[in-house]
């Protein structure tokens, strides 16, 4: 049974957008999953119904169609790993063995010609994804994609040790883990490939740009924790999300944990809008395009999160909203009190730090 928690509409100041190819993307991604036989027959049957092509079409609303399709197949593949190996599979309780399997997959991503995991469907799918990453990306983007896979894999091994022991990390550790285990950073190179440009390292790795990127990961994963709480808490066995962390460590009721998680993501969203507004005033055209795409990623995850059967679970309906609100519940400008991310609040020049209503920062142009 689900939690019965009623999720109210949450704050989203970013307008929705979708690529016109979204219906085709759903069909093509389902066909790709069948071709490579991603996941068990049962898991694949669920994944192909979850409109993952539409999710990708929301992330890249004006991107190259081939990359919309690549990203859709990649997200479906990620769920093949995250659901198939980690959350529902045997390896999810054996961090050491999981680390070994993920290293073998990394070798396939890095050297698709290597004779590794030759009979494995996830490896075959990954070889195909790598070929397409080479076609639509630069050598540097392909290398960053492999590195991002490594940081995602590293975090799910950490998560697996908590699953094995039945423990729940504290909020600081959970936040650090969640910046990576939501697989948000592996999507980032495809934001560039989608529009055929390369963000220069001096901008991509600038502290404030990295902070904006991390904030996007925080918002996307907190929103997922809120919207997937019903799906996750009704499943048998271990689950981990921000609500569970707040219940276990702060002794909050489910209702209060939900309220707290909403307040946390509202404050990060408020800061994100102010910071990206500032960055896009001063950045290159490529940085502005990148920031626009981060916004589409955030909003796309929200729109997909409230509509996909993955989360609405029609057989036992989740009580989640069908629209978003345009003001935050908590517009506070103070840091969240989570040490690993407290530096996010130190980046804006003093003048932009104090002023400006929440959500009023200009949209990246
Ligand atoms: C997300 O966390 C796990 C990822 C592997 C899903 C693949 C999705 C993306 C790469 C884009 C990011 C989108 C998100 C986080 C919705 P979790 O809690 O295991 O996802 P679940 O769908 O099971 O709630
Ligand atoms: Mg997961
Ligand atoms: Mg999951
Ligand atoms: Mg699950
Ligand atoms: Mg190329
Ligand atoms: Mg989730």
From TrEMBL:
Lineage: superkingdom: Bacteria
Swiss-Prot/TrEMBL cofactor(s): Mg(2+)
Pfam families given in the database record: Terpene_syn_C_2
GO molecular function term, any single one: terpene synthase activity
Annotated EC: 4.2.3.-
Keyword tags: Lyase, Magnesium, Metal-binding
Family: Belongs to the terpene synthase family.
Name of the molecule in the record: Terpene synthase
Organism whose genome encodes this protein: Streptomyces fradiae ATCC 10745 = DSM 40063
């Amino acid at each position: 049974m689900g939690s019965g928690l009623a999720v109210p509409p949450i704050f989203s100041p970013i307008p929705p957008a979708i690529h016109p190819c979204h219906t085709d993307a759903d069909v093509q991604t389902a066909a790709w999953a069948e071709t490579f036989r991603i996941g068990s027959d049962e898991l694949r049957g669920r994944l192909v119904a979850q409109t993952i092509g539409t999710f990708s079409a929301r992330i890249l609303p004006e991107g190259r169609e081939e990359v919309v399709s690549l990203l859709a197949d990649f997200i479906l593949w990620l769920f093949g790993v995250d659901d198939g190996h980690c959350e529902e599979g045997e390896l999810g309780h054996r961090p050491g063995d999981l680390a070994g399997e993920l290293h073998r997959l990394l070798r396939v991503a890095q050297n698709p010609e290597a004779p590794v995991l030759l009979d494995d469907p996830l490896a075959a799918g990954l070889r195909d994804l790598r070929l397409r990453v080479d076609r639509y990306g630069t050598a540097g983007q392909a290398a960053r994609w492999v590195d991002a896979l490594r940081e995602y894999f590293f975090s799910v091994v950490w998560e697996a040790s908590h699953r094995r022991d039945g423990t729940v990390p504290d909020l600081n550790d959970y936040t650090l883990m969640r910046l990576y285990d939501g697989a948000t950073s592996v999507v980032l190179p495809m934001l560039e490939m989608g529009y055929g440009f390369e963000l220069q390292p001096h901008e991509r790795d600038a502290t404030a740009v990295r902070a904006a990127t991390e904030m996007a990961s925080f918002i996307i994963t907190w929103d997922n924790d809120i919207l997937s709480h019903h799906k996750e808490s009704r499943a048998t066995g271990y689950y981990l999300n921000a609500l569970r962390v707040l219940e276990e460590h702060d002794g909050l009721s489910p209702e209060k944990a939900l309220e707290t998680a909403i307040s946390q993501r509202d404050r990060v969203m408020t800061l994100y809008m102010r910071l990206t507004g500032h960055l896009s005033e001063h950045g290159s055209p490529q940085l502005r395009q990148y920031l626009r795409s981060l916004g589409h990623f955030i909003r796309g995850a929200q729109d997909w999160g409230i509509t996909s059967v993955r989360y609405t679970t029609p057989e036992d309906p989740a009580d989640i909203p069908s629209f978003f609100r345009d003001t935050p519940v908590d517009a506070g400008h103070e840091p969240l009190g989570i040490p690993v991310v407290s530096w996010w609040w130190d980046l804006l020049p003093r003048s932009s730090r104090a002023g400006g209503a929440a959500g009023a920062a200009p949209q990246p142009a």
